[in-house]
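In this section we walk through a basic example: taking a raw amino acid sequence and producing a predicted 3D structure, encoded as discrete structure tokens. The instruction is simple. Fold the sequence below.
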Amino acid sequence: MGKKIKIGFDVRTMSEKGSGIGRVEIEIIKKMMEKLPSDKWEIHLCPGKETEINFNIKQNVVIYNYLKKHNSTLKRAIWFSPFLAIKNKLNIFHSLDFLGPVWKKDFKVIQTIHDIIPLIFSKEASYKSLFMCKYIMPLMFKTGDIIITFSDNTKNDLLKNYNIKPDKIKVIPLAGRDEFKQQIPETEIIRVKQKYSITKKYFIFTGTLEPKKNVIRIAKAFLIMKKKYDDFCLVFAGAKGWRVDELYEIAKQEKDIIFTGFVPDEDLIPLVKGAYCFLFPSIYEGFGLPVLDAFNAGIPLITSNTSSIPEIAGDAAILVDPYSIEELHKAMLIMIEKQEKRNEFIEKGKKQAEKFSWDKTVDEIIRIYESILGTM
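The resulting token sequence is shown next.
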């Protein structure tokens, strides 16, 4: 038996309670453990302070828990990741987070770029994230062997803003969560509606409440729609983020806008599946996982016509200008008044979701590993 191939993963934000990136890391690592034979591959995980590993770990997995206290993005890129790779004789270091190694020696580097939002919306970005995008990421791109993005839109953003050869960037779509496909007893839907004090049919948004997710315009569009149809409420399922005080001010005057806070999966899945319609008119997405979650759940979707979302949604949702409250509220009216159209979107959504799977995603990533290992 030959030597095992050692591959390191930066999984700083891997957590069910975290961001979309955290959930992506979970899905990829679980599939990697399933698909990489333990007699040929060894997986090395580099966690951060937010990392939670709530799934079974195989014998061929090494976890460097000491890194949890070294969570600095910059220090990892410059110091901890490269030296860990050298010390442990890794063949590949694959960063699933924001930054990977900015230098290397005797190992290959693969960088996953979910988006470059700090650069695109620079006026709203923190100094730290903008500094990383402007000055550290170019070093990382020079060092990296392959850059993986999850949409053509993000690839184009990279090509516009950085000096990168197009063939260095590989686009590999993600997938929705299979849990949303499962059948849920009506009693479970009733349970979560009672738990979160939902007494009417409801539109739902899921995710952290922040400006990029367009939550204030969602609330304003709902209030316009509600003047005509008072038998609906609006549910925001997610933790409060930043710069959304206006949203809570609007809700003070409206009992039919409901905030659940963070929702665990055992509640989130029936909560989504029980909704009348899913709202996701995000300003910008590197991929947009909730689009596929809505499709998998079998509920109709209203989403944005910007960034990567049209790539993912196709013709299976109503696409609106995210800056237009009028377009958003009219789309909500279509879902209420045109049942035939609503049912058509549900069926199209299920078919669209079938084009994406975590097996496909991880199989394509593994093919990249095998390709670059052949050049060592």
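Looking at the output, two observations stand out. The chain has a mean pLDDT of 95. The chain has two domains: 5-175+357-373, 178-353. In the next section we compare this with other chains.
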